[in-house]
Every structure is written in structure tokens, then in C-alpha cells.
Amino acid sequence: RAGDLEELDTTFERVRACFEAGALATGCDVSIEETSPRYSEFQNDDALARHFHENARLVGRDMDYSESHAGGMNTASTDMGNVSRRVPAIHPYLSIDSLPAVNHQKEFAQAAVTPAADVAVADGAFLLACTAIDHIVTT
């Protein structure tokens, strides 16, 4: 992971050089093949995010919208970063009341099949639809 594609490219080349140096020092060959595209940093669309946050607030889902929190939107490694470089995008997370469990944990998977998770899915669909309407009407 890296903060942006430039940092990722720089780090990749440094790591490649380390492997090549190790191969040279030990008399081995090294072959590095990228098997998937690199994930770009996510670019949160401010207008979409503001519409989403306002709609979330109206249905009782207050979310942190500080700049340091990327507007409460996901910035993890995902191909959504590549999408966000081409079209306006957001990647909000809604709580399914799983804490202290978080994504990629067994307990989170169990929380994902609860009534609270079903409400989060319905709220998410509704909020995205409202956000799309607001964006279309205001642009």
C-alpha cells in the first residue's frame, strides 16, 4: 500500500532492486511479474460525499465529515481507486453494529447476517439513490 501511485511506483522499484541485489549476491536469478493492476489512491468526490453525508444525517446516520477523515469514506486498497480517477465516486461505510469486530474477522462475518446489517444494506441503497438524485439535480 502507498499514499498514491507515485509512491507505489517508487516503492515497487526499490523492492525490485532489493530482490535483484539479493539474486546477484547469491548467484540466483530473479523474475518479477505483476499479476494484477496496481490500485490507485481513492479520490473522494467532495460534492457526492457532501450529498451522501447530508442524506445520511437526515435518516439518523451521522458520519464524521472532517477532511482528516476523508469525509468518512473508505481509502483502503481497492480497485475503486482506479474507478474514482475516471468518474466521480464515493465509497462510504455504514455501521452494522459489529464492534469491536471489524471487516475481515469471523465475528464481523457473523454480524453481517443480522437484522442490523440488513437495515444497513437498505439504508445504503436508499442513501446512494438519494445521493444520485441530489447530484443530478444540482449539476
Describe this structure in words.
The protein has 2 domains: 1-38; 40-138, Zn peptidases (Aminopeptidase), CATH 3.40.630.10. 50% of the residues lie in helices and 0% in strands. The model has no long low-confidence stretch (mean pLDDT 88). The chain contains 5 helices and no strands. The protein has helices at 5-26, 46-58, 80-84, 106-111, 115-138. The chain starts with a helix and ends with a helix. By secondary structure, the chain is mostly helical. The relative contact order is 0.13. It is elongated. One of its GO terms (molecular function) is para-aminobenzoyl-glutamate hydrolase activity. This is Amidohydrolase. InterPro entries: Peptidase_M20/M20A_hydrolases.
Summarize the structure.
With about 140 residues, the protein is mostly helical.
Secondary structure: number of strands: 0
Total domain units: 2
What is the N-to-C succession of helices and strands?
Answer: HHHHH
Helix count, DSSP H or I runs of 4 or more residues: 5
Backbone structural class: mainly alpha
> Per CATH, what is the topology of the largest domain?
Aminopeptidase
- Percent of residues in helices: 40-55%
Q: How would the global form be characterised? A: elongated
- What distance separates the N and C termini? 34 Å
CATH superfamily of the largest domain: Zn peptidases
Strand content: under 5%
Instruction: Tell me about the largest β-sheet.
Output: none
Average pLDDT value?
A: 88
Radius of gyration, in angstroms, nearest whole number: 20 Å
Q: Low-confidence runs (pLDDT<50, min 5 residues)?
A: none
Can you tell me the CATH class of the largest domain?
A: Alpha Beta
Indicate the CATH architecture of the largest domain. 3-Layer(aba) Sandwich
